[in-house]
Write the structure tokens for this entry.
Amino acid sequence: MSRQHMRVTTVSSSQSVTTSPAVLAGMQVGTDGANDPIITVYDGTDSTGAEIVPTASYDASALGLNGFVASYDKKAYNGIYVEITCGGAVEVTIDWRNT
């Protein structure tokens, strides 16, 4: 099985990572060091799907990778959608693979 990666870079915005069935393998969060992002990951193409990573706020003042989240290996039957609320810059890297 191949491993695919997609980087989602945004400022106070949200984005679909894939619209196909997939497995969420992990997530890393980097911030601008000043603005705490609030992030939720959904099973689906928008924020109406089931949460596969619950809503969380990440501390922008932490050094380095500001919100590393360990591996998940959670099935997303309807795609993966990342919802981001942030007053500054945030970079969310989603590790995923096709099913």
Notes: The chain has a mean pLDDT of 82. The CA atoms of residues 18 and 79 lie 5 Å apart. The chain has one domain: 4-98.
